[in-house]
Amino acid sequence: MSLRSRIVAAFSLISLAGCAGGSAAPPPASVAPATASPHLATGRWVRILATNDFHGTLEPRRDSRGVLRGGAATLAAEIRRARDECRAPQCTALLLDGGDEFQGTPASNLGFGRPVVALFNRLGRHAAALGNHEFDWGQDTLRARMRDASYPILGANVTDASGQDVAWIPDDTIVVVNGLRVGIIGIATVETPTSTKPSTVIDLRFVDPIPVVNRSARALRARGAQLVVVVAHAGGFCATTPTPSCEGEIFDLAQGVTERVVDAIVSGHTHSPVSIVVNDIPIVQARSHGSALGVMDVSLSGSSPVIALRDVLPDRIAPDPGVDSLVRAVMAPLQTLVNRPIAQVTDSMSGLVLGNFMADAYRSAGGGDVAVMNRGGVRAGLDSGTVTYGELFEIAPFANMLVRLTLTGTGLRAWLEKALGQPQLRAHLSGITVTYDSARAPGSRILSAVMSDGRPLVDTQSYRFVYSDFLNMNGDGLKATEGVERVEELGIVDIDALTDWVKRNSPVRAPRDARAIVRTP
Ligand SMILES: [Zn+2]
Q1: How far is the centre of ligand 1, averaged over its atoms, from the C-alpha of 305 (Å)?
Q2: How many domains does the chain have?
């Protein structure tokens, strides 16, 4: 049976158990969280409570429909409710995380992740996967947070350049809960070297997790683990139409488990809803930012697993008072900074349009003919009304620095071909309009390239090209390498460029022009 058909078959078995699959967009707020779990009354169960990609989101956020979601205090209340349903001795609860805990908000970033560790310690976290963004502030900071944490942050597939295990990154652990010995293996995405600043992981290798998981799971069983769970900062996407199917790193991993040695997987990285069984292994991913809680019940007495994603809705459940106090204490000294009004915004922006807007900001700040913003770096939307510094910070939280290259026209054309040749376009452009044919072979897709003054790109001219140091370190595979005549580190932080641009353009309107136009003749 092929990988895809096996995943499709398993999908149909589990689809009644939870809100499986679909696009990454959250369901309508009318989807009520499950409040009871009658199946737990018979047999023996392990309830795995799972979060992932929390990204420092201590406070609730409104989604695109205006529904308030997440927030640490509400998440804590949902965790407590799910734990209360799981009573010893029939049921044992574990709290796990799929990685990317820290990066993304002023509250977390200004404390280099400390508030999130304080929260996770308080929640009684058993273990977490090692996310790519755990490396964003360098290995020393990550090691300090690992020391602060009462739970291990696991990365079994991380080695040094010679293939040796890295001593300071734990691989796995065995936790004993209600007398049950549970082995937990952590996995980091193989995309880590291009999805954090490459310089922070230059001495590390992120190797194929499949043999690592098979080997570690067997070893954990030999050490007495009665159950083995993988926490993996690796994800994928499920679709319900036209045919239910799932694709991505985590499904390949599940498919690669060769013996009956892994009982469950907590996934992350892709911010997507996942609740599915692949190769007899239940997998859960609870979107991102604490907006949902994964509840995965694994039977120790032969029943089928039951997987659900519970929406974390502040309007539906009272916050946990202790965690609410913790969040207030963290936020109090930041109020003046994050609530500072910057400008008026006329048009809400997200995705491609916001990426183009950010590229415009960087072109202006960096004095470029052309500028680029990477799609993965647009971390939140920009709502209409008064925009605050805190909101801008969450759009561009990485503190990347702007770099200006002087490129020959030939070099600029080569970079464009590289960007347009990627499986998905990851670059938002400013200062140039490119028409291309995506059906042509990568490297020969450009049909026309016109600069903002209306003149065509000339191969023999020089152009100033502005992007972030992340991209210049080949983040997202987008480093410009051909025809580079000069490299200038501008000493401008991306958030400062964005703040200045928003201020100067208030009331802010969305750029509506298309810059990368697909044309298939
Ligand atoms: Zn990630």
Answers
A1: 26
A2: 2
